[in-house]
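The passage that follows is intended for readers who have already worked through the single-chain material. We present the inputs for a multi-component assembly, then the predicted structure in tokenized form, and finally a short commentary. You are encouraged to pause after the input and sketch how you expect the pieces to fit together before reading on.
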Amino acid sequence: MSGKDGTETPVIAETSRTLEDGNCESDKNSESVDHSAMPESESELAASTGRRPEVKPSSDLETSKVQETVSKEETQTGWGYWGSWGKSLLSSASATVATVGQGISSVIEKAESSLGIPSPSEISSEVKVAAAETNTRENEDSSLGAGPFGVFSTISTAVQSTGKSVIAGGLDALEFIGKKTMDVIAEGDPGFKRTKGLMNRNATLSQVLREAKEKEELWTSNEVTMETDKNTHYGLLFDEFQGLSHLEALEMLSQESEIKVRSVLNSLSGDELETLKLELEQLKEAFSLAEFCDEEEEEKKGDEDFTKEVTELFSQLHVSTKPEKLTRARNTAYEWIKAVPAKTLAENKEEEKQLEGGNTEEVSKNSIEDIHAFAIRSLAELTACSIELFHKTAALVLHGQRQNVTAIERSQTLSQVTVVLCKELSFLSREFTTSLTTVGVKEKTDSLNPLITAVFLEASNSASYIQDAFQLLLPVLELSLIENRTESPTHELQVQKPLAQQ
Amino acid sequence: MEAIWLYQFRLIVIGDSTVGKSCLIRRFTEGRFAQVSDPTVGVDFFSRLVEIEPGKRIKLQIWDTAGQERFRSITRAYYRNSVGGLLLFDITNRRSFQNVHEWLEETKVHVQPYQIVFVLVGHKCDLDTQRQVTRHEAEKLAAAYGMKYIETSARDAINVEKAFTDLTRDIYELVKRGEITIQEGWEGVKSGFVPNVVHSSEEVVKSERRCLC
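Having made your guess, compare it with the prediction:
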């Protein structure tokens, strides 16, 4: 596995990391995953990489230029902007195919063919089907905890069964996601399909998301829907918080940087080129997000800690932008959740006294829908804020004042930021689902579980958007590394000046 | 329903740094005036719906660019995908008025092959006592470039609505007359979603009548 070179190396490395993650859970389990996964994932991967360069239906001059250079780059190093997209996508794709098999892919297929984002009930019913299809396999594996499959099977069990004890299973799954955000990219059904579609259609992430949003718009305007209905459409909300625009702007910076980096590489030769390539290689390593298996850090942290952690990480980046908007949005979300159970419990009690049963369900039904709507809104807002931060960081890395921090240090910090953000999203989604469970205690599972599933799905989508946006920063930091190299003599002069004055 | 609009226009706001671009946009989109604001990094985004005729809404997507020179290479890239623009100068800062030529020259180079409908905005008109640019010379300059001229104040909320809605109306007219068309791969004008058929057929009837005249 390690002996491969060229295009496949990074991809396989990624796949193996996913599998190693499985190891953290239980040895017995990951073994079974290992055996079935390896051959399939490799063939899937080879097929995909082989297929990709053929798809060149570009009308735009610019894109075709990019594509040309991409295929060239692929044969050379297998990295670069598009290359790394391929890397993360392929690995997640192959992991899913290998471990999940037909069941889940049919879910994904159907979900995509219906709408940009399928309704929660739709997903849940599909998951039910998937669960039935993959039941045999699940029994063989006899596990809920390992690999991407584990998450889904847990959730499908939750959907299938009735009674409250099941929800605990669903929450376990969400807890599990915290450790496995990398794997989750694959299962975040609509998002995964969107990103997978990106590979086939040569579209950018923002284009894909824009299309999904437009589908939602079309749908909401055709259907005579209530205002509240619109409030649960992640895509529309993400755009409302300017997430799409920031993503588009980030993509522009990323593409420009990519072109510049390439032209620099083309202009170099011999030792100079080799040293630079080596440095760029180190930078890429910082972008590989390896630290999702931290058991210790998983424990719940105080409310203040996220704000503190993110603020500190941003000060390490030495860019003038501050994550206040993000931390504010996050804290608002937490305050809201905290206020929820108390309020509804009080309401319920009063209601019970006055009306004795009957209407109480009405009250709590509104409440779980409120929580669901707020959860989706918060996830969309936090994701948009995160992407805005990445966009601002890119602009400042390229055009800010020169700082005493290397591109590699910045990459490492940004990688940590990404991990923190994704963990926070999974934690937040767990808070929301806990809240849903508490408030919807009298609900039928049929109405409660789809909402829980939807929150979980959008949380994993959010995490994958953030990780994709993070990958867009790679060319930006590559360019910054190159510029720092060439400008270092003048930089030294500037440092010496004050000394001479003394 | 709120989410429904006929078109989406992308507008760009440009001009020297500290002329008040972000404050003007915030007043328009958020209805408040921010006393202190950090310089814009690269570009920021805002959006708002504008009702140009009863029941007819346009969604404005506003790109707030950084005025600082160091971000110029970023902001240049945004002209191409805008249908309209507000070119701001500060009436208390002569230099920012003199730079209007430069801004227009720059956009001309980078907007090809499309066009942007610009309005010239003399901002901070509440500070009339510190005025360094007369209304007359600003109007003359605007006319020379075929632009409208308007004076605004974000602090006192003077003409802020008018600046944006007049520009939106002008663009809407051009779109209706077919002088600006929706194009694949261009983000300047996008078609929105019309909720019922009656609405759009009414549209067709109107434009036919227009043709006969």
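Commentary: Chain A has a mean pLDDT of 64. Chain A touches chain B at residues 59-60, 217-218, 220-222, 225, 227, 230, 236, 240, 242, 245-246, 249, 252-253, 256, 320-321, 391-392, 394-396, 398-400 (CB under 8 Å). How closely did your sketch match?
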